[in-house]
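Design job #97: recover the sequence.
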């Protein structure tokens, strides 16, 4: 992932076929409309950005036909040279986690992605099947730590008996898995770009950070700088609606992606940051 980010810049483009976006693109809220939307988006986005992030929920909402479209999205995006981070936020008891792992991280599955989002809230250890499979297959997992939604703070900032917040304890568990990995470990965390600066200590993470909430949820480039500091190494800002609203015209969508990517890139090029970015593996 680091190589792809160096090649194409640090932007993850979400593919979230919201019903309202289908309307805005002049498409029906049907599997056929979904397919047109998603594959048109992939055609532009996957040629531009390092990582595309289909949001599984919007495909699942269309039943089996929607899953078939998701399979095509995964295949087409990879063929176009982007990495696919499938946003499924799965988490369950270990034995069931094994089945999710087979669905999303086993190369024999039509839904196998380069990385998936997973939820540690059934216990961090329950994620072991996914972490192990991802490592064996050169894929990745991104563990929800401190999510971008306003409702998350009560649970994720709750203090544990050891004095850490729940979110910090997740970050530290991931850091332990990544310890010693060069240049970065393959287990990432999800930290919303909307999160208040200073809540988390990411200094020992040694892994990538998916930062959704950029754009439609209000986070800006300045927020990224304030939250992650000068060390943006491994930070992957993600945006879905704010990019997709620029379609359906492919030229307008492409221009929008380039504009956002340039904005983030300029921020990274500001004094004090360039050195860190060059250190990005
Ligand atoms: O903390 C999180 C984790 C995941 N998401 C997902 O990212 C996109 C955000 O969409 P926008 O349109 O850019 O708001 C969406 O798929 C979420 O489920 C997140 O927002 N926050």
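Job complete. Output follows.
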């Amino acid at each position: 992932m680091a190589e792809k980010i160096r090649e194409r810049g640090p932007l993850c483009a979400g593919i979230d076929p919201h019903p309202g976006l289908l309307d805005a693109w002049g498409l029906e809220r049907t599997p056929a409309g979904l397919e047109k939307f998603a594959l048109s988006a992939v055609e532009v986005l996957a040629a531009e950005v390092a990582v595309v992030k289909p949001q599984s929920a919007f495909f699942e909402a269309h039943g089996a036909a929607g899953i078939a479209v998701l399979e095509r999205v995964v295949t087409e995006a990879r063929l176009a040279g982007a990495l696919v981070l499938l946003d499924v936020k799965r988490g369950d008891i270990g034995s069931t986690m094994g089945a999710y792992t087979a669905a999303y991280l086993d190369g024999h599955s039509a839904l196998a992605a380069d990385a998936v989002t997973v939820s540690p809230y059934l216990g961090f250890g329950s994620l072991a099947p996914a972490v192990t499979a991802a490592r064996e297959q050169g894929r990745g997992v991104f563990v929800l730590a401190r999510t971008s939604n306003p409702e998350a703070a009560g649970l994720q900032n709750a203090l544990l008996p050891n004095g850490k917040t729940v979110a910090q304890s997740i970050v530290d568990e991931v850091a332990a898995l990544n310890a010693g990995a060069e240049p970065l470990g393959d287990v990432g965390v999800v930290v919303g770009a909307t999160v208040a600066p200073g809540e988390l200590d990411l200094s020992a993470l040694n892994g990538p950070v998916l930062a959704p909430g950029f754009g439609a949820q209000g986070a800006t480039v300045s927020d990224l700088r304030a939250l992650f500091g000068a060390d943006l190494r491994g930070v992957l800002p993600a945006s879905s609606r704010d990019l997709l609203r620029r379609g359906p015209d492919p030229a307008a969508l492409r221009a929008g992606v380039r504009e956002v990517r340039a904005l983030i890139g300029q921020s990274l090029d500001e004094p004090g940051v360039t050195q860190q970015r060059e250190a990005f593996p």
